[in-house]
Structure formats: structure tokens, C-alpha cells
Automatic annotation (TrEMBL):
Keywords: Methyltransferase, Transferase. SUPFAM superfamilies: S-adenosyl-L-methionine-dependent methyltransferases. The keyword Transferase applies. CDD domains: AdoMet_MTases. This is Class I SAM-dependent methyltransferase. It comes from Streptomyces bluensis.
Amino acid sequence: MNTFTGTSSYRRFRPGIPAALAAHLAQETPAGSPLRLLDVGTGPGLVAQALAPYFDEVIAVDSDQTMCAEAEAALRPALSAGQRLHVQHTLAEDFMPPAGWHPHLVTCGRVFHWLDQPRLLNRLNEYIAPDGVLAVFSDRSLWTADSAWQHTARTVVQQFLGEQRHAGDDVFGPPGQPYEDALRASAFHEVTTATIPVRREWRIDEVLGYLYSTSFAAPHLFGERQEAFEAALTDSLAPFIEGGFLVEDNAFTVLTARRPCVRGR
């Protein structure tokens, strides 16, 4: 079973990336014509959608066929005249671009943990543009965030599913080496770090939708207890509502990696 089986609410409830992050990544991208983006593990296309206005050609890849269909449906209608898009169903580690197609920016948003990192990095070194940039970035998920209401929501999930974090029908693996170490061990070992803050407001139904979009709280994991879980979560979060919303202060940690002695524009 795919880790994200049953997470059909992914696009509706997963937050996209803020405009400030898209602008930061665009600024880090070297000049090129046509300017090319490869979005790895695109899911429903949230990262590609935010970055598409900056690029002439976009390729988005994902290992889940349903996610690819959602990305295609969202991205295709928003293309400007002359822009090119290709959404491909494949493992990121197996992807090879068309002959002569060299991305200037490769993005891994909230997905690097799930990948065979050495294999992906070796493959990228085969085809990324000579001065191309790899960007690995993520914000804190509800499981790892530390506000009072998010801690409470995580506790309710654990009451129903157990203390260990799920990854679909399995459990979440132990943390691997820090992303920066993985990058520094690759050809892309010139690494810089940036932090992009973001504030979000959630309704309780949106928190539920978000949880159901994750691998650790997918709907099928609750079985016949799903209705009881929803009631417990609603009751537990109600005291934290401010002005009709649950307020979240989060931040994206952004690692941009290049081959040595190559600078962006």
C-alpha cells in the first residue's frame, strides 16, 4: 500500500508555500533561457504552482498516479502562453529528463525524507544544468510543531493510533542523517540555509482535513473509530480558538545546494 493511500484531501488541506519562499527560490535560480524547473515529489502540484510564474518550462514528477492527475488538473489551466508543462508518473530516483533538457532549479518540498537521497543526488548530478540549484525545504508538520493546540491535536491522534508515528500502515522510520549532511556528501556540497516564516489560520475542520491528508493520520487508520476521533479532536481544540481560528506560527527551512564554485545570478 502506498504510504499516502487514503489521503485524497491532500491538495485541499495541505498548505502551499508562501509567496516569500517562491520569490526566494526564484532569486536563487541561475539565469537561463528557457528557464526550467523540475519539481520532485510534486504531489498535487503545490510547489510547482507557486513557482510556475517564474519559469518557462516545468516538469513535475511523483510516484503516485492520483497525485499526478491532481497536479495536471491544477497546473495545466494556469499556464501562460508559451509555457510548457509535463507531469510524469515515476520515482524521482528513476526520472530522466528529455534529451537536452537541463533544469536550472530542482525542488524537493516536504519530500526529501521519503527519497533514497544518495541515489537521487547522484542522478541529479547527471542532468541538472551546470550552474543549477537544488532546493530542499520543509516546514514543521503538525506532528513536529510545538504550539499548545498542535501538541493537543497530536496527543488526540496518539490516543487513537498509539504513541508511534504512523507512515501509512507502517511506522515512521528513525530520522536519517541531517539533510545538510546528505547534501554535503554529494556533488552539490556548497550549501546555504535560509528561514522563511509563515503564519496560518486554521478552522477545526481544516485541521481534520489536514490530518487526513497525512501518512500518520490517514482516514483508514482509524477504522470504525473515525467518528469518535473527530469528536474528540473537535472538543480538545475548541478552547484554543482565537477570533474563530487556530493560529499557527511556522517557518520553512530552506537548503539550497550547488556544485562548488558556481553562483546564482
